[in-house]
């Protein structure tokens, strides 16, 4: 489950239990925020968006950043948090 913040949720057993994972930047809105690795089913590939103010203007410059699968795996772990995601 993708939220608009920095904490998201995943399930490995069709919703019986959920694991939260935190990311450093909010999810992208231009493409799918989550991807999966066919060979490593427990890895999540996360795409977020990072924006910086343009000096001297009212504009922001935004870039999409993709986490490496290994980093995403370390962030999510496999232990159940025992908590349901927010509804």
Classify the secondary structure makeup into a structural class: mainly beta
Pattern of helices and strands: EEEEEH
How would you describe the shape? elongated
What is the distance, rounded to the nearest whole angstrom, between the alpha carbons of the first and last residues?
10 Å
Biggest sheet features? 3 strands, antiparallel
SS strand fraction: 25-35%
How many DSSP-defined strands?
5
Note poorly predicted spans: 70-86
Rg (CA only) = 15 Å
If helices are DSSP runs of H or I spanning 4 or more residues, what is the number of helices?
1
Total of domains: 1
Mean pLDDT: 76
Strand order of the largest sheet: 3-4-5
Overview features:
single chain; 87 residues; mainly beta; 3-stranded antiparallel beta sheet; 1 helix; elongated
């Amino acid at each position: 489950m993708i939220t608009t913040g920095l904490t998201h949720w995943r399930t490995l057993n069709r919703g019986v239990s959920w694991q939260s994972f935190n990311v450093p930047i909010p999810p992208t809105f231009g493409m799918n925020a989550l991807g999966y690795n066919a060979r490593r089913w427990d890895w999540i590939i996360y795409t977020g968006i990072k924006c910086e103010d343009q000096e001297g203007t009212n504009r922001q410059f935004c870039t999409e950043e993709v986490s490496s699968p290994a980093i995403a795996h370390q962030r999510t772990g496999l232990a159940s948090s025992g908590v349901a995601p927010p509804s």
